Amino acid sequence: MSILILYHGSPEIIEKPLFGKGKTYNDYGKGFYCTESEELTKDWACTEGVDGYANRYEIETGALNVLDLSSEKYTILHWLALLMTYRKLKLTTPVMRRGTEWLKEHFLIDLDEYDVIMGYRADDSYFSFARAFVNNEISLKQLSYAMRLGKLGEQFVLKTEKAFGAIQYVGHQAADNIIYYARRKARDEEARAAFMAELEREDINGLYMRDIIREEVTADDARLR
Fold this sequence. Notes:
Blueprint: E1 3-10, E2 32-34, H1 38-45, E3 52-60, E4 66-68, H2 76-86, H3 94-107, E5 116-120, H4 124-134, H5 140-149, E6 154-158, H6 161-166, E7 167-175, H7 177-201, H8 209-214
Parallel strand pairs: 4-5
Antiparallel strand pairs: 1-3, 2-6, 3-7, 5-6
């Protein structure tokens, strides 16, 4: 039996997560988004001037079909294809339109067969880094670097009724917005500054979106690892 401790940040105490609720335009579509990090959860539970809660749960995963995007089978482009599918994105340039189409055609995973998704988290700041890559502004190496800057960890997303039936509420902790929202904001600003410094170096020999399309790069290409 495999039991995980998960946390969900919210302005509310959520004792029973409800299947079918949630925003459609989250990273992996509609679902209940959790993490194994209590401290990160407290950061995300708070907004400016509003306290939150780190809701704690247990879930038994042995009978669930879990898609782990960090496994060797997948690359950052599989994650990007999902992000481009589920998050709202204004396609403002031809390369962005073609890049999004390419990612969906060659790297998109069908989530319907999975109860749970495990993968990167992308708030608005980090989504902008992903958008810059698809628009050929940064290399794949720079994107990977950017995603590590914020130390956002992985999300554990419940997608099916079966997954929702497996999770159990075990308590919560209050999170003070003065402490945790400030910490979240500081981390975001630090990541943005480090990312801009990285851009100044210019990855001349890097792999860009146009290269991936032109060379028809596939998932087994060593440059994606």
